[in-house]
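Input chain follows. Return structure tokens only.
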Amino acid sequence: MSILALAVASLLACAQSQITTESRPSRPAPTHAEPLPGIHVFSTAPYGDVGLDGNSIAIVGDDGILVFDSNGTPDAAQAVLSEIRKISRAPVRYLVHSHWHWDHWYGAEVYAREFPGLTLIAHEKTRELMAGPAIEFNRPGLERDLPAHIAAVEKAVADRRADSGAADQKDAAALERHLAMDRWFLQQKRGVHPTLPNLTFRDRLTIHLGGRSVEVRHEERAITPGDAYLWLPAEKALVAGDLLIYPVTFALFCYPSGWIATLRKLEALRPDVVIPGHGATLRGSEHLALTRELLERELAAARETKAAGEGQEPCKKRLLGDPKFCELRKKITGGDASAEATFELYLVDWFLSRAFAELEAPLDDGIPTER
């Protein structure tokens, strides 16, 4: 499967139809953590094997709430908003989106509907991509890939039901639950009404929530052309979006030099708390430093390999045999087998592909469309 086909599987899309509440599978409430007073992190369960949401963060101030990222489906956004309502009845005045990936902004319509005066903020490049290219990039996942996956699961259910063994019937029941989640997820995606920012920024924007100040910032092109993150100077809290994921950051379509430069700037803030785009909240900047050092090492290896007239595969082989690289890898993944597999795809294959492309010619701001 090509890199772009894998991307489509990870970034399934939106269109225009409606979901019936009867088809909704049972889903747990979002998990909730409060790493600092008034800063709330919500994480939702994955959508079976077909998708997962980014973290959604609610920052409660004296005169309102700022939400950072609105999940990947309206249902998930509504579930998070219900949890926010248990904490505070203050209005959500601001919704900030970190970047164009669907799992961080497809729930925006829920907040826009519930709070008519909402200011919805993103970087100007992010809005530009949300307004069309991101939807077109995801369309094959919606129209072809996910329906094909659902058809395969339907066939597997029918095959199990055709057998009479107890084990086969148990497998069929599990597959039917899987199938219900996949169908519901597709319906959710088809029911999204893309809700675009009504305020954009280029470098910095400061929001005052009563006595609490929140800086919305952009450095360089990193994961996408318009990555936004939050810095709360009084609390020394960094809300990173997908600039950093725990444990393994998603490097597809990244901008290697700009990402490394951005991570250096985030590290220089010396945050006490780092809230990543996915995964658990972190204390201190160790994981940030490990990721930055790893990427620096990879980009240097790509430069050396290309100067020697060789390509990505020899570079990868060299890195995987480098004791320091392997040490960094182990620290990032903790030796977990699943994280190791993700690491090799995200932070080796995908990162090196972009590193070699960047060394060949300047990368543009578009979303690649070749498959």
